[in-house]
From TrEMBL:
<dbReference type="InterPro" id="IPR012677">
    <property type="entry name" value="Nucleotide-bd_a/b_plait_sf"/>
</dbReference>
<protein>
    <recommendedName>
        <fullName>RNA-binding region-containing protein 3</fullName>
    </recommendedName>
</protein>
<dbReference type="GO" id="GO:0030626">
    <property type="term" value="F:U12 snRNA binding"/>
</dbReference>
<feature type="region of interest" description="Disordered">
    <location>
        <begin position="52"/>
        <end position="75"/>
    </location>
</feature>
<dbReference type="GO" id="GO:0097157">
    <property type="term" value="F:pre-mRNA intronic binding"/>
</dbReference>
<keyword id="KW-0539">Nucleus</keyword>
<keyword id="KW-0677">Repeat</keyword>
<dbReference type="InterPro" id="IPR045164">
    <property type="entry name" value="RBM41/RNPC3"/>
</dbReference>
<dbReference type="GO" id="GO:0005689">
    <property type="term" value="C:U12-type spliceosomal complex"/>
</dbReference>
<dbReference type="GO" id="GO:0000398">
    <property type="term" value="P:mRNA splicing, via spliceosome"/>
</dbReference>
<dbReference type="InterPro" id="IPR000504">
    <property type="entry name" value="RRM_dom"/>
</dbReference>
<feature type="domain" description="RRM">
    <location>
        <begin position="112"/>
        <end position="195"/>
    </location>
</feature>
<dbReference type="Pfam" id="PF00076">
    <property type="entry name" value="RRM_1"/>
</dbReference>
<dbReference type="InterPro" id="IPR035979">
    <property type="entry name" value="RBD_domain_sf"/>
</dbReference>
<keyword id="KW-0694">RNA-binding</keyword>
Amino acid sequence: DVFEQPQHVGHKKIEFHITTDIPTVLQINSEKEEKNGKRVYLSATTEEMNNTGFGRIFPAPSSNDKMETEEEDDEIPSEFISRRDLEKNRLSREEMEKFSVFKNYEPGDPNCRIYVKNLAKQVQEKDLKFIFGRYVDFQSEVERNMFDIRLMKEGRMKGQAFIGLPNEKAAAKALKEANGYVLFERPMVVQFARSARPKQDANEGKRKK
C-alpha cells in the first residue's frame, strides 16, 4: 500500500511526453493562442531541447542601458545637457568639412577660456549655460565663480561668446565635445580663447608706432 499511493509520478511522465512528442504543435499554439505565462514555459522547454539554455528568455541589454544612464546621471546634473545629446547633435568631421566656418579650423593654445562663434540669433546665455555648465562643479564656490559667459549680441562680435571655465582641463573637454554641436540649426565653432599674450603684443605695437 505504501508504494502504491504516490501515483503523481504518472502525471509528471505525461508532462514530459507532451513536450518531447509534439514540440512543433506546442510552438504553433504558443505563438498563435497563448499569451500568458504558459507561453514562456513552453518556449523555455523547446529552447532547452535545442540546447540553447534559459539565458535568452531575459533581455540583458536593458540592464546595461540602465547602468549607463545611471552613470551619466551621477556624473552630470539633469539641468545640463547630457553627453549622449551632445554626441547626437554634433557634426562629424566629414560634415564639418562641408561648412566654410570650419575651414582652416585650429583649436588654438589651451587655456581655461573658450571662444565660441557662428551662434544663431536666438541663442541666449541660458542656452550656453545649459551646454557648458556640465563642465563646472557648482558645489564648489571657486569653480562656480570662475564660470563666466559673455555673449555678444551687437556689433561685429554678434553671434560670438567667451566662456570662462574652472581650469584648462575642463576647457579642453568642452572644446572636444561641443565643437560642431548644432544649436538652433547652426553648428557652433569652439576654440580656445586667445590668452593675455596678444594684449602685450598690441602694446608693443603701439610703442613701435
